[in-house]
Structure formats: C-alpha cells, structure tokens
Amino acid sequence: MSQLCIKANVTGRVQGVGFRFHTAHEGLKYSLKGYAKNLPDGSVEIMACGEESDIDSLLLWLASGVKLADVQSINTERLEWRHMDGFAIK
User: Per residue in 51-90, is it b (16+ CB within 10 Å) or e — as a string?
Assistant: First the structure.
C-alpha cells in the first residue's frame, strides 16, 4: 500500500453545518492525519495523509458530508507524503 497526502477544497454549503468536525472524525476513523479548515470564500480545505485506500474512503464520504451540508464540488490535489500528527479542526 502506498502512503500519500491530498489537499481537497470542498465547495457548497459546508460552513456552519459541522462539516469540519465530522470530517476530522471520519479522518481519524480511517487513521488519517491532517486538518479541516474553513476558508474565507465559504469552502472547506482538507489536508489528509495516509494510506491511499483510506484517502479514497474519505473522499467518498466528503461527496455527501453531513446531512445539513450541500456539497457542490470537490477539487483535489495529490501532494508529497509528509508526516502530520492527529486530525485538527482549524
């Protein structure tokens, strides 16, 4: 299995609905490290590092997110592996 990092930008109604909290919970469930952070444009940025299959599982979850969210798009960028601790809510 290969380890990688991704940065994802999730747009739609994703702020003020618990999206970062639930993303962090899902990330930890899949043993990923990283963060979820609100951006000024109303989107949420997610950095996640871990096994490729676990990253794929998180990306599938992000497509629907939480019940109150309305995900419009997810843009991802594959990054070089880097060590991170925990899954933070920024």
Answer: eeebbebbbebbeebbeebebeebeeeeeeeeebeebeee
Residue from 9, 38, 78, 82 carrying the catalytic annotation? 38
Of 9, 20, 78, 82, which one is the catalytic site residue?
20
pLDDT at position 2? 84
Dist CA 31 CA 50 (whole Å): 7
- The model's pLDDT over 19-68, given as tens digits with 9 standing for 90+, comes to 999 999 999 999 999 999 999 999 999 999 999 999 999 999 999 878 89
What whole-number distance in Å separates Cα of residue 83 and Cα of residue 64? 27
Can you give the length of the chain in residues?
Answer: 90
Q: Two tokens at 60?
A: 């599938």
Active site includes 20?
yes
Q: Report whether pLDDT(16) > 90.
A: yes
